Structures are given as C-alpha cells and as structure tokens.
Amino acid sequence: MGMSEVYAQRRSRRWGDRLRRTLEPPSPYIPNPHEPRDFPLGRWNLYIGGAGSAPPGYVNVDLFATPGVDVVADAECLPFSSSVFTRVECDAVLEHVRDPQQVMREIARVLAPGGYAHLVTPFCHPFHEYPRDYRRFTIDGLKELNGGALEVVAEGWRTGPAATMLVFTLEFAKLLLPWQWWRILAHGVLGWLLFPLRYLDLLLLRSPHAARVGNHCYLWLRKR
Known about the structure:
Radius of gyration: 18 Å
Structural class: alpha/beta
Number of helices: 7
Number of strands: 7
C-alpha cells in the first residue's frame, strides 16, 4: 500500500476503514519522560517527514503532498538556503532514506549556527515500508552518521524494551493468521489487552541495559 492510500484510509468514511479505526488500540509506546524537549524554537523551524500531521511552528517537508505538508521535497536535497532554521526535527525518517549521510549533510547545512537538530530512529522495531525501510540505528550509529559535524548535547532512548516486546508480539500474532480481517481483529484485541504493559518502560528505561532491546533512540545536536 502506498503512502497516499495509507492517509486516505485514515480519513475514509467507508464502514471497513471506520471499523478498523474503532478497533485501533492505544499506542504501545510510552515516550521517555527524561528526554529533553525544551530546546528553543526560532522564527523558522523545519520538520522532516511529517506527512499526515501539522506540527505547529514548523515548515513541514515530506515526499508526499498530504494534509499538513507545506513543502514536497526529498530530504537528501532540501530546497532551502543554508543556515535558515533554528531547529530541525527528523523523527523516524533516516531508516527510510537511501543516503542518510546526505540527509545529515543537508540538516547541518540548513541549520543556523546555535540551532538544534533532533534525530529519532528505530533500533528493535518491525519492518515498516513507508515507502521503503532500509536500516536500523543504535545511538553510536547515529553519532557515527553525524561524523562530528554537529555537537552532541543529549542522547538516549525514547521508547524502551516494553515497547519492543509489544510491537513484536503484535506482529508475530498477525503473522500466524491467514486472512486480513483476522489480522486486524488480532491487532485490536491483543493491542487492547497488552497495552498496559507499556508502562513498564517508565522503570526499564532507567536501566543501563535498556539499550540491548531499546525501541527508538534519539540524539540532540547543536550547530557550533
């Protein structure tokens, strides 16, 4: 299914799509409450890969012309002048691009001196083809990708081992079922039964061993 079909399905009023949305369980993720969120926004801020949303205060860039997207562009060749943005958000994008190093070079280029870039990527997470899925990252992998171009000011795990366990349990259960509607039903029933376990991450993310099966990691970077 292409991205345009995914977002059309989310807005569809057909009974099947409405039932699917009704069965949708709560998210299996609890974001790490200790992840920094207070780095400043400026007059111009860039959100890369925000299709299907409208993040306030940001110029929203994505490959697809969907609701909320301001500029349709490839993150490997951003159509902006250098040193423009005070903050750049790149959330769950780098696993989908063919050349993540080029995307990092573009982020560093459009970021203004003193500005901040925020990277979030999956580590232990199922395959998700939107539109392609090429790789996974650790915190050290993100630092290597940055290559010292930007100063690392914060690092850690956004979602932890409990999220990993939940998303893989749901995907494994669906893998065992032969028909689409059975998989949809299993996702809804198991998702509602198991989602309270996500709160274990509030404890598990304090462990130094969380990185072994962490779900999403993050870096905050600053342009000198």
